[in-house]
Design brief:
The protein has helices at about 1-5, 10, 15-20, 50-60, 75-90, 95-100, 110-125, 140-145, 160-170, 235-250, 260-270, 290, 360-365, 455-470; strands at about 35-40, 65-70, 105-110, 130-135, 170-185, 210, 220-230, 230-235, 290-300, 300-305, 315-320, 355-360, 375-380, 380-385, 395-400, 400-405, 415-430. It has about 475 residues and is an alpha+beta fold. A 7-stranded antiparallel β-sheet has the order 6-7-5-17-14-9-10.
């Protein structure tokens, strides 16, 4: 406490014990914090960086407001804190009421960890839900990058933490769409009905569970599972490479504490899994059109078939302008062209999701060029995948950077995956934010289309791509010899 009081700046982020822990003695309340924070850190993220960051935050703030996600479930923490706040408010505690108004959350970890926290905040339906700032501790770090928090693993010393805290205090609040994903399948006559072993579920599917019989999503004779995402859902070859990477990291975690090593390993796995190779070498990895029938909702309640080119082996449903470590697969389509005339700018709060396809990783490498983009397939308020018998035994799916292996029907039944809007959550954004709001006056009033980019802009984008690259799927590490792929 003395160390906190010795730094007037840190007092603006300090949370007193009596608000964090029920029954604690009410201490001095002479200073109302301008930006009280609750900090969640995945101590296993970023090699040893998560653990180091945990120590730094606890040395600067009240240790009881800094939580290790390996030891504390965020839903229980937030439920307890908000229960305490509401109780104190009912007793006329104006100090607690002001803290609740200005409370902010910091989450340090990979994209999956950030999505986990966003899901908890969304599911708890908190009064005055706090906005979330993200510390990049993962491999891709698409969520932090989208809102201006950077891509590279941050410094973990106390001075770096102070700089970040001040950025949190100055950050603006931005609403973003959240997306609901449901998966429905017929109840098998025998065997387990769970499509995935519980331990293999990513954190971003924290809410992924069989819905109750009273839930409106329930359908008689079916098992229905649900979850949510904020950045992207992808399926196919890119998710398979990601799954192989996560499996390798789980077996040898001590090797995966360096971003460059992670990127190199990702590329090697892309080669061995067939992401850079001819599809004929990997007959089990079917193209998307062979795997599923795809429908999109362009008008509320009206589903229509989406024609997927037979060459597409990976499909991405994108909510934010960052995929594969900072690239934008959607790009800036020229709406003067007839094929793009009905598209709108890709805002993060417009209730629309952008659907992009890739043939292979070579196709993905076009994202490294100015105005590079994937195959734009649709822009819609919902998308549905229907998997039937005979397509394949399984496919790979990924939510916000975390993959899983999804079994497909073995009999005449159908597995349906449906994505629809599910409200909004609040993020904190710095001036370097890449995401754009349709309601934010600071967003571009005119949409800069791909054919109108100046040479200067193209040069700037090239430098940005060279610097940030595609940390996960597409980028070649600086020391990689491309002749190895020949």
């Amino acid at each position: 406490m003395d160390s906190v009081n010795s730094d007037k700046t840190l007092k603006d982020f300090f949370m007193p014990d009596y608000i964090l822990t029920a029954g604690s003695e009410v201490g001095s309340r002479s200073h109302l914090p301008a930006c009280p924070v609750i900090v969640f850190i995945n101590s296993k993220s970023g090699g040893q960086l998560g653990g180091e960051l945990l120590v730094s935050y606890r040395s600067l703030l009240n240790k009881n407001q800094v939580f290790d996600l390996g030891e504390n479930a965020p839903d229980k923490v937030l439920h307890q804190v908000y229960f305490n706040l509401e109780t104190l408010k009912c007793k006329g505690d104006d100090f607690a009421a002001e803290i609740q108004k200005s409370l902010r959350i910091i989450v340090a970890g990979g994209d999956g960890t950030a999505s986990w926290l966003l899901g908890v905040v969304s599911d708890l339906k908190l009064p005055q839900p706090p906005p979330v700032a993200t510390v990049p501790l993962g491999t891709g770090n698409n969520l932090p990058f989208s809102f201006g928090w950077g891509k590279k693993n941050p410094g973990t010393d106390t001075q770096s933490v102070k700089v970040f805290l001040n950025q949190v205090r100055a950050a603006k609040e931005m609403k973003i769409d959240s997306w609901h994903i449901t998966m429905r399948m017929r109840a098998p006559k025998e065997g387990s009905c769970d499509p995935i072993a519980p331990l293999e579920l990513p954190h971003s599917l924290h809410a992924f569970h069989r819905v109750s019989s009273s839930d409106k999503l329930n359908m008689e004779g079916c098992h229905t599972f649900r979850g949510g995402f904020w950045n992207y859902f992808s399926m196919g070859m890119d998710a398979q490479v990601s799954y192989a990477f996560h499996s390798e990291r789980k077996l040898n975690p001590e090797k995966y504490n360096n971003q460059l090593y992670n990127q190199s390993t990702y590329l090697k796995l892309g080669c061995t899994q067939g992401w850079f190779c001819a599809p004929l070498m990997h007959p089990s990895n079917r193209n998307i059109a062979q795997l599923a029938k795809v429908k999109v909702m362009k008008k509320q309640g009206q589903w229509e078939d989406l024609d997927i080119p037979r060459s597409i082996r990976s499909i991405v449903c994108l909510n934010l302008p960052s995929f594969s470590g900072g690239l934008n697969p959607w790009g800036k389509p020229n709406r003067k062209k007839a094929i793009y005339s009905d598209l709108t700018p890709p805002y993060v709060d417009d209730g629309l999701i952008e659907v992009v396809g890739f043939r292979n990783a070579w196709h993905g490498l076009v994202l490294l060029a100015p105005n590079g983009h994937g195959t734009r397939l649709a822009q819609a308020s919902g998308i549905r995948f229907e998997f039937h018998k005979g397509a394949a035994e399984h496919t790979f799916m990924r939510l916000d950077g975390e993959p899983w292996k999804q079994p497909l029907p073995k009999d005449d039944d159908t597995v349906v995956v449906e994505i629809t809007p599910h409200g909004q959550v609040s993020m904190l954004a710095t001036p370097l934010c890449r995401s754009r709001s349709m309601y934010d006056p600071s967003s571009p009033t005119s949409y800069q289309e791909e054919d109108d980019s100046s040479d200067e802009d193209s040069s700037e984008n090239s430098e940005e791509r060279r610097k940030f690259g595609a940390a996960a799927t597409f980028k070649f590490p600086d020391d990689f010899d491309i002749s190895h792929l020949s």
